[in-house]
Amino acid sequence: MDGGRRGSLRLLMVVQLTQGFRNGIVSPILALFVRRQGLSVAQIGVLGTAGMLGWLLFEPVSGVVADRVRKRYMILFAVVGSTVVYALYPFAEGILYFAVLAFCMSSVMSFYAISVKALMAELLPASERGKAYGRYLSVISAGGIIAPFVGGYISATVSYTIPFFISAGIGVFSIAAVLLMRYDGRAVKEESIIEEESEKEKLWTRPFVSILVVRALFMFNLLFRVHFLPIYLHESPRFGASEAEIGAFMTIVRVMSALSQAFLGGLVDRVGCRAVMASSVGLIGFSYLGLAYLAGVPSLYVLGALQGVLMPAADMSMMIHLMGIMPEGRTGMVMGVYSEAENVGGMVVSPSLGFIYDGLGPSASVFSVSGVLIFTGVLAALIIREGDEGGKPEK
Questions:
Q1: pTM for this predicted structure
Q2: Which of 8, 33, 281, 362 sits CB 3.0–4.6 Å from 377 for a disulfide?
């Protein structure tokens, strides 16, 4: 890797460190803040759908744009836009206001997510990709380790609105790092644009469709954690966790993620993506059963430590598999379609879990998430093929 690419990768880490902190500081209290405004859990599920709609509409566009323009400009636009949205949250009242904010946030962050993923895929070395990607994730995870605890503590002791203003203020620090980047991605050659139809045919292969299906189902885990888990932990008589304790739980998850990611990257290089993907997703499903049968905050923290290892293993194995099967020069489009699979899954998952939570009870929503994830682990073992992505080292 040349000096310009190495330096740009480091600066990209700085950007993600900052974003990790600003997202982390509101993560334990966002759902609770909305709940305090008088919204039901089903309505919060609808807000999740509004947020997913922004991703659904703009991530495919972002994927196409990312292959043709400066990715730095896309990142800058997203940082500025998300800063404005975070600053507006404390003034929100009513489901319509929250829905508009959720839609605006996901819309602007679509440009951030796709451009960052595309740059990362291009900047990471091809050899021992799992090891390099694991170290990369370990570094950027440090940005969000302490943030959930800080957000939860400030909300419990001072005010629910302060974390949103802190998040808005911190976002501007990543702008300088973006401007200093020298590498800005591979531009798509004119002949590649002309031959776009053949590129699409190359893109829609069985390995690519398989990973899209697995990723879409995995959204049961991601959206449950964002929209429903803080409420469940706060209101469940088994845990009755305070805002600070929920923040501590999320911090434990992030600490374990940061500590394990470098090791997990090497593990993917050794045993391949399918084994790590199938086992980690299935075990996450089993771990959620602990929410239905365990009690007390200490048990919650043990569960957080376990999930802090399993979740990055699942995310990492999926992404490394994806990077191994993507066509040359189409990183933006690939990441856009991959994210669109998340959006389609999320549009179904968020309202479904909300209605299950309100209609059948909190435990029913936990069992639903657990069952889908166990099924997804089995499905990944059946449809993901090791030779498809080259993620397993050559003999």
A1: 0.69
A2: 281
